[in-house]
Specification:
The protein is mostly beta strands. The chain is built from two helices and 41 strands. It has two domains: 119 residues, Immunoglobulins (Immunoglobulin-like, Sandwich), CATH 2.60.40; 300 residues, Pectate Lyase C-like (3 Solenoid), CATH 2.160.20. A hairpin with a 2-residue loop joins strand 9 and strand 10. The N and C termini lie far apart (103 Å).
Length: 476
């Protein structure tokens, strides 16, 4: 009985195979169709893989076909990699495709160093052979050489230039008593969760038309506004005299963390003319530090945008602190937090004086009803620590219980809507009907005579509040 089963199985397999082959058309008039003729990649850093792209292959006839081969023109030496119907391979054979059906081919690319500072176009193609028809889909990516910094510690004074981007993998540390200077136009890209940790000092010398950029290493359009891609800049405890001018810091977990200075009359950080935005926690977290910020935008974070806690000394001039965060989760924290104590591991209150928190010609606003939180009580009891703050000629979105006529904390300050142009799209320039127009103090604007767009604050009736000056065009 068992001996009879085997011939029957063989006959069945032969019969099924014969039927399968009979359904496949060899008609050369049947050609493949594609979702695109070229798979394009954004700039890809050398030695780092790209995101995955795909092309969809269609058999628009009502007949089944067999694609004789799908292969990279560059073969195994190609910088590209393809995955055909779930199988990673540089060459797939005899791929069955039913009538009126489709399949996906996924594509990735890794570019070898090119020894060029400028991007180079890296090309290949996917070749399809179907019923004697040779068709192709082109592949194109811009490959960019980088200075690759992996687990790097800078131990001597160092200058980064703008010749080609810097790619930081894992953390980069600036050692104590060491300065890292970054010149105008330089771009630093950080791999997933990588952090710039400064134990010494950081000097960023950007210029109005050539800022220094700090961002993640995913350059595809999808990642242009995705927060949390890298760790951020951490000015560690004891770090001092860092200076940042004309910088763009974006898409990190923290923009800048400035820890306690531990030295009297010494600044942790001076930051001017810079944009720090789109963070999954804070744009600026200052803990017992000394910070001066002028003509800066701090915007769009999942937690507080600017958090000044555990004491310190802070001055903000012509800054816009705005939060219209709308990604992933709803926001429950204010744009600005002031907090003059912390609770230690033994559940004891540790008072920390905020000796000064000055905001002059600033806007603090956002999508929540209250965008300023001042914490100087614990269990409804005042903490024995200073919390000296003042909003001087500002627009602030504060709790209505705060007395804006109290000149100890508020001078010429209003809660009117500043009317940003497109705040939910990240544009915090002022609309023509903005309440922030022309009401700033001139003695503060003299310190920062040009706004973040390098527009003069002294060319109309008066300086506008915040980091952006609106100049109305002459009516004809």
């Amino acid at each position: 009985m068992k001996k009879a089963i085997l011939p029957i199985l063989i006959i069945a397999i032969v019969w099924l195979t014969s039927c399968y082959k009979e359904t496949i058309s060899s008609d050369p008039a049947i050609k493949l169709s594609f979702s695109t003729d070229t798979v394009m990649f954004d700039t890809v850093f050398t030695s780092v893989g790209s995101a995955t792209r795909f092309v969809k292959i269609y058999n628009k006839s009502n007949k089944d076909i067999e694609i004789k081969s799908i292969e990279l023109a560059g073969g195994r030496t190609s910088p590209y990699r393809i995955n055909v119907d779930g199988e990673p391979t540089p060459s797939a054979k005899n791929v069955y495709l039913k009538g009126s059906d489709s399949l996906f081919i996924f594509v990735e690319v890794t570019v070898n160093p090119t020894n060029n500072n400028s991007p180079l176009l890296i090309t290949d193609s996917i070749i399809f052979n179907t019923n004697g028809n040779i068709q192709d889909v082109k592949l194109a990516a811009w490959g960019q050489d980088v200075h690759l910094l992996k687990n790097t510690t800078i131990t001597t004074n160092t200058i980064f230039t703008a010749d080609k981007p810097y790619l930081v993998v894992n953390d980069m540390v600036v050692a104590p008593n060491t300065n890292l200077t970054i010149n105008a136009g330089a771009a630093l890209h950080f791999h997933n969760l990588a952090t710039l940790k400064v134990l010494g000092s950081l000097t960023v010398n950007g210029e109005p038309n050539s800022p220094v950029t700090f961002a993640g290493d995913r350059l595809e359009e999808f990642y242009q506004d995705k927060a949390g891609q890298w760790g951020g800049i951490w000015l560690s405890a004891g770090s001092h005299d860092s200076f940042i001018n004309w910088a763009e810091i974006k898409n990190a977990i923290y923009g800048i963390v400035a820890d306690t200075i531990g030295e009297i009359n010494t600044k942790t950080l001076t930051i001017h003319n810079s944009r720090i935005q789109n963070m999954s926690v804070n744009a600026l977290l200052a803990r017992g530090s000394v910070v001066e910020a002028g003509n800066c935008l701090f915007a769009n974070t999942a937690d507080q945008t600017v958090s000044l806690i555990w004491g310190g000394d802070y001055n903000f001039y012509h800054c816009t602190i705005a939060n219209y965060w709308g990604q992933y989760i709803s926001r429950k924290s204010p744009a600005l937090l002031l907090w003059n104590y912390y609770i230690d591991n033994n559940n004891n209150i540790q008072p920390r004086d905020i000796v000064n928190a000055y905001f002059g010609n600033c806007i603090i606003y956002g999508s929540r009803n209250v965008e300023v939180s001042i914490i100087n009580k614990y269990n409804n009891q005042s903490v024995n620590a200073q919390l000296n703050y003042i909003f001087d000629n500002c627009i602030v979105r504060v709790d209505q219980t705060l007395d804006l006529t109290n000149e100890t904390h508020f001078r010429n300050t209003t809660t009117e809507n500043p009317k940003f142009k497109l705040p939910f799209e990240g544009n915090f320039e002022l609309d023509t009907l903005s309440a922030a127009k022309d009401i700033g103090l001139k003695n503060i604007s003299i310190l920062f005579p040009f706004d973040l767009n390098n527009i003069s604050r002294t060319s109309d009736n008066g300086p506008d509040l915040g980091a952006f000056e609106r100049i109305e065009k002459d009516k004809k």
